[in-house]
């Protein structure tokens, strides 16, 4: 299967539809927080289907930091496994779309620096980490060109 399969989570699917349908001019923030969101497009590692996942916009220069927090749930989100299997993504940041490659950040010093940037951009990440036993994974997305 190669076409786009929307998230089974209705509010997430709705945000993707509004964000992408408007060309990145509407639906670009998390609910009423006013905080910016990006859309990550990638492939499911089992199905090959196109997946679209809204995440908080955490920028580090031209790179984006992707935080697999899933609200502090006990398990990694599915997209974590998808990105580990195929790191090639497209990232939409409002009206701009970038071709990027992700890598998981495991180095302690680099992770520390990027985690601080993530928490500054979206403070609830800190409480999500406190809520769960797992170490919340971080990816850095870098431009391929
Ligand atoms: N989630 C975060 O983790 N971090 C954020 O910063 C974040 C911000 C955010 C902002 C706005 C918004 O609307 C949502 C936001 N979310 C954030 C939620 C995020 O968009 C995801 O919905 C959430 O992380 C859960 O991701 P998920 O990939 O686990 O999706 C769930 C809903 C799911 O059930 N998805 C599909 C499904 O049908 O089961 C995924 C299926 C899938 O990927 N299948 C793979 C395949 O091959 O197609 C196989 C996967 C496998 O390992 O089996």
Describe the fold and architecture.
With 145 residues, this protein is α+β, with helices and mostly antiparallel strands. It has one domain (10-143): Electron Transport, Fmn-binding Protein, Chain A (Pnp Oxidase, Chain A, Roll). Helix content is 29%, strand content 29%. The chain has helices at residues 10-21, 78-85, 108-121, 124-131, and strands spanning 37-43, 50-56, 59-60, 63-67, 88-93, 96-104, 138-143. Strands 2-1-5-6-7-4-3 form a seven-stranded antiparallel beta sheet, sandwiched between helices. Strand 5 (88-93) and strand 6 (96-104) form a beta hairpin. The radius of gyration is 14 Å and the shape is globular. The model has no long low-confidence stretch (mean pLDDT 96). The site of coenzyme F420 has 26 residues, from helix 1, strand 2 and helix 2.
What's a concise summary of this model?
The chain contains four helices and seven strands, in the order H-E-E-E-E-H-E-E-H-H-E.
Question: Helices and strands in order, then pairings?
Answer:
Blueprint: H1 10-21, E1 37-43, E2 50-56, E3 59-60, E4 63-67, H2 78-85, E5 88-93, E6 96-104, H3 108-121, H4 124-131, E7 138-143
Antiparallel strand pairs: 1-2, 1-5, 3-4, 4-7, 5-6, 6-7
The protein binds coenzyme F420 (F42).
């Amino acid at each position: 299967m190669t076409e786009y399969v929307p998230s089974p989570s209705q509010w997430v699917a709705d945000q993707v539809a509004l964000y992408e349908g408007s060309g990145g001019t509407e639906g670009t923030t998390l609910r009423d927080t006013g905080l910016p969101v990006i859309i990550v497009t990638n492939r499911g590692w089992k199905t090959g289907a196109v997946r679209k996942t809204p995440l908080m916009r955490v920028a580090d220069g031209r790179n984006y930091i992707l935080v697999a927090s899933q609200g502090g749930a006990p398990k990694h989100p599915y997209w974590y496994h998808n990105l580990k299997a195929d790191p090639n993504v497209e990232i939409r940041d409002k009206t701009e779309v970038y071709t990027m490659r992700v890598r998981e950040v495991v180095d302690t010093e680099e992770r520390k620096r990027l985690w601080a940037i993530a928490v500054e951009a979206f403070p609830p990440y800190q409480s999500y980490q406190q809520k769960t036993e797992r170490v919340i994974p971080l990816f850095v997305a870098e431009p391929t060109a």
